[in-house]
Amino acid sequence: MPRRSALAGTSSTAEIDDRVNSIVDQHSHLEGPLLPILHAVQEELGCVPQEALPIIAGRLNLSRAEVHGVASFYHDFREQPAGRHTVRICRAEACQSMGADRVAEHAKGRFKLNFGETAADGTVTLEAVYCLGLCACAPAAMVDGKVVGRVDEARIDAIAEEVRA
């Protein structure tokens, strides 16, 4: 199960600044440190908040636009903390050809969420992804980091029960 967001317990921008600066200190010696820093910030805070971007940019001598571009390009980085469980549905062509559109619509209805949304009670976040590398077992999904192949409506129902329990 993913770690619960520490950002919710963060009381101030100064505390976020301190934590982000500490993460940059730990990773700035690496060659190409931006991605490891973004991953570490998300692991620590549960997301990559907007206020972290200028800190990272300044410390790495990059523009804020460069840091934002990388953080927004990769689907794993989010601006808001995710729910306790994350369900990702593959939307790539191979999965679409095997019924992923139908499965995605069923998932949105079952979870009562659109892609990119988190349930009000914080239990689950529903996300679209574009290829999980499980094309031979399409349609595919990922639940809390574990890939699931040959997903159909019944499997979505079972996943919904598991994450809501």
From TrEMBL:
Binds 1 [2Fe-2S] cluster. Signal peptide: none annotated. Its cofactor is [2Fe-2S] cluster. [2Fe-2S] cluster binds at C90, C95, C131, C135. InterPro entries: NADP_DH_HndA-like, NuoE-like, NuoE_N, Thioredoxin-like_sf. Gene3D superfamilies: Glutaredoxin, NADH-quinone oxidoreductase subunit E. Transmembrane segments: none annotated. SUPFAM superfamilies: Thioredoxin-like (SSF52833). One of its GO terms (molecular function) is metal ion binding. Keywords: 2Fe-2S, Iron, Iron-sulfur, Metal-binding. Belongs to the complex I 24 kDa subunit family. PANTHER family: BIFURCATING [FEFE] HYDROGENASE GAMMA SUBUNIT (PTHR43342:SF1), NADH-QUINONE OXIDOREDUCTASE, E SUBUNIT (PTHR43342). This is Formate dehydrogenase subunit gamma. The lineage of its organism: Bacteria, Pseudomonadati, Pseudomonadota, Alphaproteobacteria, Hyphomicrobiales.
